[in-house]
Input
Amino acid sequence: MEGVDHLAHERNKSEFDVDAMKIVWAGSPHAFVVSDRISKLVASDPGFRKDNRSTLSRKELFKNTLRKAAYAWKTIIDLHLSEEEAAKLRFYVDEPAFTDVHWGMFIPAIKGQGTEEQQQKWLPLAYKMQIIGCYAQTELGHGSNVQGLETTATFDPQTDEFIIHSPTLTSSKWWPGGLGKVATHAIAYALLIVGGREQGVHGFIVQLRSLEDHSPLPGMTVGDIGMKFGNGAYNAMDNGVLRFDHVRIPRNQMLMRCAQYTCLCMPSDAKLILEPCILIRVSQVTCEGKYKQSDVPRQLVYGAMLYVRQTIVADASCALSRAVCIATRYSAVRRQFGSQNGGPETQVIDYKTQQSRLFPLLASAYAFRFVGEWLKWLYADVTQRLQANDFSTLPEAHACTAGLKSLTTTATADGIEECRKLCGGHGYLCSSGLPELFAVYVPACTYEGENTVLLLQVRDMSCKVSHEDCFSAGVQQETSRYNSLYDSSRAFNAMSLRCSKSALLEAFEARAARMCVACAQNLSNFDNPEEGFAELSADLVEAAVAHCQLLVVSKFIEKLQQEIPGKGVKQQLEVLCNIYALFLLHKHQGDFLSTGCITPKHAALANDELRSLYSQVRPNAIALVDAFNYTDHYLGSILGCYDGNVYPKLYEAAWKDPLNESVVPDGYHQYIRPLLKQEIRTARL
Amino acid sequence: MEGVDHLAHERNKSEFDVDAMKIVWAGSPHAFVVSDRISKLVASDPGFRKDNRSTLSRKELFKNTLRKAAYAWKTIIDLHLSEEEAAKLRFYVDEPAFTDVHWGMFIPAIKGQGTEEQQQKWLPLAYKMQIIGCYAQTELGHGSNVQGLETTATFDPQTDEFIIHSPTLTSSKWWPGGLGKVATHAIAYALLIVGGREQGVHGFIVQLRSLEDHSPLPGMTVGDIGMKFGNGAYNAMDNGVLRFDHVRIPRNQMLMRCAQYTCLCMPSDAKLILEPCILIRVSQVTCEGKYKQSDVPRQLVYGAMLYVRQTIVADASCALSRAVCIATRYSAVRRQFGSQNGGPETQVIDYKTQQSRLFPLLASAYAFRFVGEWLKWLYADVTQRLQANDFSTLPEAHACTAGLKSLTTTATADGIEECRKLCGGHGYLCSSGLPELFAVYVPACTYEGENTVLLLQVRDMSCKVSHEDCFSAGVQQETSRYNSLYDSSRAFNAMSLRCSKSALLEAFEARAARMCVACAQNLSNFDNPEEGFAELSADLVEAAVAHCQLLVVSKFIEKLQQEIPGKGVKQQLEVLCNIYALFLLHKHQGDFLSTGCITPKHAALANDELRSLYSQVRPNAIALVDAFNYTDHYLGSILGCYDGNVYPKLYEAAWKDPLNESVVPDGYHQYIRPLLKQEIRTARL
Output
């Protein structure tokens, strides 16, 4: 049966132009061509195979990752790949590695926070990988609260050096990727002490290992922090621990950026440290030991965070779409129950319970794709404005990006696990690809801003606005909107929910606004606003989620107002947009009902409409996941393979497990035979 | 700082008798004593250490599991442990192994479905482990739908044998634990064919491997199905694949139970096959090739499912409480933000966002414990009735057990992952114990009845009742209840929510009933009821969840009506009961609002009350998890260790990773140095 497409009948059912949808998903014809070429290049090169990953021991896995990273670099050089293509290649190699941090954190930090001189010295070395860098910020005792970092950098004017030191156990650097075994250099963050005075946390370029024999330099205790979640996943990465014992570095290795702003251009894989980078200072220390606050506006430091977080939102749609692609294809292959007169059983994708769990995730993948595109635009716009000294849109851009990072990563991690469950028992096998996808993805909920902490930033911003500005004006506005919503002419009905996105959008707007106003009202009951924020923080988080969901829905609707070529493409996206919005409305109907944005009758109608939308998606489901254009290599899943030939592949794969190398298992003579022969009391165990 | 209790100040805050709570948690003084003794015995024996589990390769892990299983058996024999104690010992060894299936599925199947003669022959061998059994039911192509199994057992009257055969690839047995490498025998399920007629799926005792050299017998192709989710987890188990090529077994190895009913007593670890056992027949074939339907009532087969599922509910509270214990202790140790004047930062357990995620899970652990106790009682009651030929309570018991299995396992799997996230970045380390706990636990959502399929069984039962019986009478009843709820005297207010559990319970009852009635009404719009059930199945699942949550809330309230000794113990449980109910009310407020069971005002008041309850739990949180009485060995988590001395232990553990065996990693010369030295183009990769 090799070569037969077991999903051909599904593909024949689709009602739209899949090739046109591939362009929409990729973002542009150019982006599609690059992705398509590079993903096929990686898939066809046995040097990048990954199907054996789950059975390797930690040391074998790590060594294999070192090999792949070197091989990828060789490929990039041999084929003269552009920066864009090189980044895509690393993406499709699809394995966490020290290179992610080198390209995604180390180089950008030097570009963003280094002086011209520092950039000229260090960047060429880094670009050629003559040095390999990591980003040493988080400590054993400190993640989210960067201001609490304990590592010290004390200026010694006599030698014109900084003394980097770890004064406590909890000040040990902990988590940085690439630090454990590979990196030769680090950007290390430490509390600057000049003339006995603490001057906040700053970044320092510190050499870690000899460039000759790779041994750690004097004063460094460095190693790997040990195993992490999942079989392969981040165990391919040497997340590290590092203690400094009075390590001296020249003064010119403190990042002292003071000139104009050019730092926000980073490669697309800037995402791999655990926990956020907030409130780092960029300042200067003179050789006389004078501390000068940088003239780089504080706001600019936010720019780097914006960049990284918007790439995380873009990645969310990739990860979720992978899981959805696997679960959708397997749901069309798998049959269970419903056989009539000995005929084939029912495809599980035809069950409404399966559809009601799977199709909202399919819709979410598309929704996150489009909100990611918008965030990319927003980032470019903010960058332009910053260069013209216009900081006006930065706070809102920061709040949106933080909120959407939190919303999309949480939904994606949960969605991957839901897709795994939708594949039944076989989803629990590593060969399904889903355990690995989950374990690799889920730290995104924690790194670059823990998701709940981020939502509190959204609410801080949006509710402080409500509290201070809107509380008088806003409540009135809100009230008028409230009334208008109940105009009989605007009342929802099944028809309006189907035909009028404006009615849906209004419901989401009203819900977000009213939850925010309710929070503001509750806050006003507290004499001390700080205490109020602390006490009501769980409610504020819910209001922030409502705000972020409104953003995703509204950007999806905006996307549909653009011209979208290709037969039936826009119609499919309309259906997915409605599913996304109505699914959220159903899931959070408590919010909508309690704030009076909809009535129970509307909720019931929305639910009926949702079922009818699922029926519209059904014939197009396989084509909608084909539009992601993922190779079987990238998917890394037998259950999700393009041709749907699942069972023979599962069966073959099983025999490759190391346990099957011998028919009688190692341990039989010592531990099984004594049981069977009743010789356990005298056995050596 | 060795020996210092870093959580002593937390323990001193508690307002209740922890030792008395330990008895409540254990279920009885006797249960506490046994658990306490055996868990300490396991914890103190280095033969059972498990801290090295995550770094072992598959083969090492498996061999180590074989050793532990043999060592556990030796311990059981040497110490003359009772059956109860032996089961506890296997529980506290805390590693999936072939013994789980031998004791939990193989032996019970023979007891339940075997004739007297079969029991006399096989049970003594199994009890002494002279044979090791597995339970071979699921196939590559069939899990939930047992009636669709493809393996055949054809009776050959000439030799008085059955011929067991796998006619297709998808008929390969797939998943059975212990099958891959260890078991000498299997209960294999196959479609019985007698005289050319198919007679449904039956069980057969099949020898798999030689008792002399462990090699597979002729006609058997058997092996391991490969790696599964997680580092250790079920990779310690040899879930297997098996193809039969016309394997002949004597006629007396078909399970042919026909006598009176005695099968429902099983050991407590009967839980470890993937996917459910439904609709297996127990019949007889005579030597002349005559098929006789068994006189064992079909209902009795349900009894075995009831048993296994009620143990799964009991296990849910164990797994969830472990995760909650870890997250609660670490939340009291971990400090982040909020330092004032250089003082210590705030314990993260003091943040309301942390409390609003953690404390409902703490309450859920207790709630599941008590509903598990009730199910155990229910099971015993049903068993007694069955022995007296009273089948009247079986359908409801079956629906309750199925629904609660689904509800508690889903909530527990999600809860473990939430606890992991509540531990921030460090929760992602294997040394936190949470990745392993999740990966070991999560298959419970799929095995022994996939959770969504189970909820459809609940709705089938409850809604068919609604549809047929209640639809006339029921709606009226419902309406009267509806009206009474709105009696001003019964209206909810903050006071009644706090003081009157009956008001809360009524809200849960009304919600469950009205959702069910709404489904019934919607079903009546379909001409064909089958089609209606299929189309509305997602709604029916939601109604089933509402029904199951009502059960958990009502059983918690019933528990509180009992006498509970110990200073402050009952008060703590009252608080937890209210948290559990109000948390659900908040989470599902859409249901409560749309069915008119509460008003938006009530929802807001419930939310305020919830915050105040969190404040009441806070000082008792550590003591409430101490009451689970888990040893550090069983918890298997540095973050959750009893003394709270987290950071030094994390730091020490890191150095034990195999990657730290050498300072310069294996692979440096081949793959890192060529990068740094710009020699990649000529490197051999």
About this structure: Chain B touches chain A through 144 residues (CB under 8 Å).
